[in-house]
Model the fold of this input.
Amino acid sequence: CAKIVRAVLDIVCDLAPDQLDMQAEICKNIIEWTRREKRTFLRQRVEAKLASVLVEQKDFGPALSLVDRLLRELKKLDDKQLLVETHLMESKIHFGLRNLPKAKAALTASRTCANAIYVSPQLQATIDSMSGTLHCQEGDYDTAHSYFLESFEQLDQLNDRERAVPCLKYMMLCKILDSLTKALQLSAKGGVGAKSDRSQVDISGMISGRQGVKYAGKDIEAMSAIASAASRRSLKEFESVTEKYPHELQDDLLIKHHLHILQEQLLESNLIRIIEPYSCVEISHIASLMEMPLPSVEKKLSQMILDGKFRGILDQGKGQLIVYEDGEKDRAMEKGLQVLT
Done:
């Protein structure tokens, strides 16, 4: 009976993947029935399914409460298979709540349980993908890329296109961000982004011919267009791409968040390249070259000064930006601060 109930639930969820409210309602009804019939093992698996539906609905509060209660029960029973899946779900919930330390701890617990049992390739691919997501969130794009590659290769062998395409997009995203970050760090002394070399942010050779043919579509086109805009350091081209592919670039939380970071990096890079030759320049001139509103340019320049991206002040009375040369550090001040701390 339990196998039949789970099979029916899986069929319904596969036939109506977008009807999340209906899936949640069915899971709740089954949970009530299992409690009346005292079917503990079935209830736990359906509760795990309900938690995954709540995560897809971005309803993280109830999902976390459900997972916490479920984990307490599973640890007593020592159900390793379900512990792996539930800890993984807990990691996704904490990631959705932007609590990275707890997300990493939950993922570590999931990996620990997975090492003691056989884990299916689909579940292992999900664990690797989550590892890549957390490393990407921390800015370790090279490690994140390797995890996404592991996940993609497993899904590619399983011919699971639906889950393989997002992994391929994440791989491209990591490559773009890693290449651009390295290019900005190689810039001339005085600020990021002063030096430009197209080859430093080029990912044209990242996708093999077989992958390009097999997974060709708007998703890969969108990421390739983002890579092209990043390689040219063109903020205008970047914005036009995000407007052209809203579904492919804005629906995914990870890609949306890091594209915002990429946009800020491109903006700072272009601003630094414009102001580098000057010791004093009118803010309106910078705004006209950037083709941006004057208040937005003033706000961004003030943020960059406060963040230490370059040394200077804004003279808003005259509407000018005064840029200072990099001087030697005040060692006496540094020593004094070390003594105080």
Q: What stands out?
A: The first strand starts at residue 280 and ends at 282. Residues 186-199 have pLDDT under 50 and may be disordered.
